[in-house]
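2024-03-11 09:14:02 INFO worker-7 job=invfold-0412 stage=load source=structure_tokens
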């Protein structure tokens, strides 16, 4: 048995807590890719609507899962999840916000990806304790669930407001990182996590200066160092001024003195290998104006940090992108929110991760999405493309307040090894929300033949403002 002990960390100042770990069980089967819930080789699309009304309970929250197919996500094959779904723990209650955060991994290595759903508004020992639900994959899709272990419920609130998965402690099993607020802002739940397993232990971390009442608000993960051991990107707000703070964390926390590395400040991130060198790179989005956040820029910005053997590559300057960068479509204008969301995936099948950037504030918050392509030399603006509801072939029409691009994800829904572009607009139809899926080709996402659907199509009530698409595949 290993016991983790704490010591002083970097100035970002997350202080890990000690917790004992038990010996993990043996693996059962090769793991499925994230979000492939039915094991057919196609990623499925999970859509969070944390504002959805369920059985008369406002903002109880719901999640639609639309399964992948040869032509993309098929709304005819779907699963609706709420806390009132048979087999789900808990009960749908007002303000639970089920579906605020989503993540996926084959936790029990049975060949089917499982879905994690954050419910940060769930009441427990006090208000807004939060909870995380694991919904199990199978040959017929998602079925059956359990609650994720919660070790420090008296020391945090809004458990599940951020989620990420990976073998973070490098012991061969998939773990879950969970963001929260309060004295404990980051929890690591140690794998393996199965339908019947007990607690294998976990650890938590607290912040003194790094993030204040917002806690850890967003998480992403990937193999930045190329050693097969994923790191976690943490987002929060500095206690002294509320500015965005971002750090890369090594959760194999045998050495607390250097487990955090500072990254450019932002509110969202994505991790993937843009230049094909075996080190995942990090795209950090900061959609704020400088007046609202010192790390922001006019109209927002995205910073790409290239990975290396020790984390961020010391010999490569970060690439800063705005809508005024040569080759990037559009122009930087106040309120555009360029970098409101980011996603990395290989759109054209050339072996390099490409970058989708949400700009939900564009044109009075009608919204837009930009796609830039990876290459052996890094991200390039050559061939960059922009999409909105006014793009020929994209269903609908751009309207003030839609917020098209609030969430973006690059995921292979067709099984052709090219990442398709899915985009949400939670403001569509005065807060109902909607999702668009653009199938990718050898030259990028194709607007022609793209599809869209809203909450009613997938069984979610349009009472109130469900905010369909507030969360998508991460």
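2024-03-11 09:14:09 INFO worker-7 stage=emit residues=474
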């Amino acid at each position: 048995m290993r016991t983790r002990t704490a010591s002083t960390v970097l100035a970002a100042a997350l202080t890990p807590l000690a917790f004992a770990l038990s010996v993990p069980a043996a693996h059962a089967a090769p793991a499925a890719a994230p979000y492939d819930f039915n094991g057919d080789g196609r990623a499925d699309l999970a859509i969070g609507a944390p504002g959805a009304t369920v059985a008369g309970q406002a903002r109880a929250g719901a999640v639609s899962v639309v399964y992948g197919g040869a032509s993309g996500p098929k709304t005819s094959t779907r699963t609706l999840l709420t806390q009132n779904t048979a087999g789900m723990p808990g009960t749908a209650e007002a303000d639970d916000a089920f579906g605020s955060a989503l993540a996926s991994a084959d936790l029990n290595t049975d060949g089917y990806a499982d879905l994690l759903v954050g419910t940060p508004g769930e009441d427990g020992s006090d208000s807004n304790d939060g909870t995380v639900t694991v919904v199990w994959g199978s040959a017929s899709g998602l079925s059956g669930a359990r609650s994720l272990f919660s070790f420090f419920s008296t020391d945090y609130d809004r458990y599940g407001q951020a989620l990420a998965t990976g073998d973070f402690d490098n012991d061969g099993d998939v773990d879950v990182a969970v963001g929260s607020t309060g004295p404990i802002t980051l929890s690591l739940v140690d794998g393996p996590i199965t339908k019947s397993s007990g607690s294998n232990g976990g650890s938590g971390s607290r912040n003194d200066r790094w993030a204040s009442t917002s806690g850890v608000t967003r998480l992403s993960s990937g193999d930045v160092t190329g050693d097969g051991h994923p790191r976690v990107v943490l987002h929060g707000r500095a206690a002294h001024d509320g500015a965005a703070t971002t750090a890369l964390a090594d959760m194999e926390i045998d050495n607390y003195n250097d487990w955090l590395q500072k990254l450019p400040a932002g509110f969202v991130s994505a991790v993937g290998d843009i230049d094909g060198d075996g080190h995942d790179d990090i795209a950090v989005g900061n959609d704020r104006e400088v007046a609202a956040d010192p790390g922001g820029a006019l109209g927002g910005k995205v910073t790409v940090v290239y990975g290396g053997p020790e984390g961020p590559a010391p010999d490569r300057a970060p690439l800063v992108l705005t809508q005024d960068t040569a080759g990037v479509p559009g122009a930087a204008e106040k309120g555009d929110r360029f970098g409101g969301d980011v996603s990395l995936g290989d759109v054209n099948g050339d072996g390099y991760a490409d970058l989708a950037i949400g700009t939900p504030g564009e044109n009075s918050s009608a919204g837009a999405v930009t796609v830039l392509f990876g290459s052996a030399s890094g991200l390039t603006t050559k061939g960059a493309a922009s999409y909105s509801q006014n793009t020929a072939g994209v269903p609908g029409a751009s309207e003030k307040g839609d917020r098209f691009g609030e969430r973006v994800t690059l995921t292979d829904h067709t099984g052709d090894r090219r990442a398709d572009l899915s985009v949400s607009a939670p403001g569509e139809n005065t807060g109902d929300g909607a999702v668009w899926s653009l199938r990718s080709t050898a030259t990028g996402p194709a607007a022609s033949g793209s599809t869209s659907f809203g909450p009613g199509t997938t069984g979610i009530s349009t009472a109130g403002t469900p905010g369909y698409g507030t969360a998508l595949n991460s």
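2024-03-11 09:14:09 INFO worker-7 stage=report msg="The chain is about 0% helix and 35% strand."
2024-03-11 09:14:10 INFO worker-7 job finished
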